[in-house]
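quick one before i forget lol
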Amino acid sequence: MNGAFTVADGASGKYTVTFRTWLPPGNVMDGEATAEYNTECPPAVGGVVEPANTFAVLVPWLAVIGLVGCIGTVFVVAKKRRQ
């Protein structure tokens, strides 16, 4: 008796296959086979990989730099007017 089973690519874990065969004349043969598959990393859950929008990532930092520059300019102008 022989047989085979397949496991999807990227799958990992422990799989147990149980089989039962009837042999003539009416004898029953039971068995169990266990196989363990371990992969380097778990399979992906789903989603789409896209590159990051560089401008969208930098906008908050550009706003902070602009705000600091504006505040600095206000202080410099106010100090020069006092003199």
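fyi Residues 13-41+52-82 form one domain.
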